[in-house]
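Structure ticket #2291
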Amino acid sequence: MNVLDLIFPKTCLGCGKEGKYICENCLARVKLLKPACPYCEKASIDGFTHVKCRKKYGLDSLTSIWDYEGVIKKAILALKYKYSTEAGRELSSLFVRELKKSNLIKEGTLVPIPIHWQRENVRGFNQSVEIGRVVAKEMGWGFIPNLLVKNRTTMSQVELSVEERKQNLKGVFSLSPGFKMSDSIILFDDVFTTGSTLKEAAKVLKHAGVQKVWGLTIAR
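Resolution: structure written out below.
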């Protein structure tokens, strides 16, 4: 325990119990998700996109570990908007633990969804990069944190309809020059809601010649 823990003890974001930001009791209350197709979101083997749902420049699968609720939701929001990097470290560790159990994605190069440089300057970090770096290392995957670039700021997706989300993100991502493209990319973001962000990024990667793009998120 360090000095900061004595002055500001860690308390669970779910129940307030001291010791951790994410206690095991609160974590157990969050639903673990079964693999689902990223387009119709119905059950699929290992999260692969159903044949009828496949798109030429689309995602090939989706792996999401938890339902976006309870202490997991609170930890993601604390990391994104309250800049709680300690909560982020706990979340990363638990995410890796569940990923190893699932054994759904065997290999690839992890590429985090970027945020615009202005937002990153304000926040000081990109949560998908920070968690993605830990995940890639622990899973033995490659890691390219700046393969994708977000070209402009966008409206918050929270209050937008499915169609508005698509338009909001249309053409927002591009590739950084000079990178050798991997055949298999694991596209990582914190939350999958409608999937508009991952799908738009996958389109850019597929147009660049990537053969397989696997979607990976902490929650859905």
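Closing remark: The chain has one domain: 32-219.
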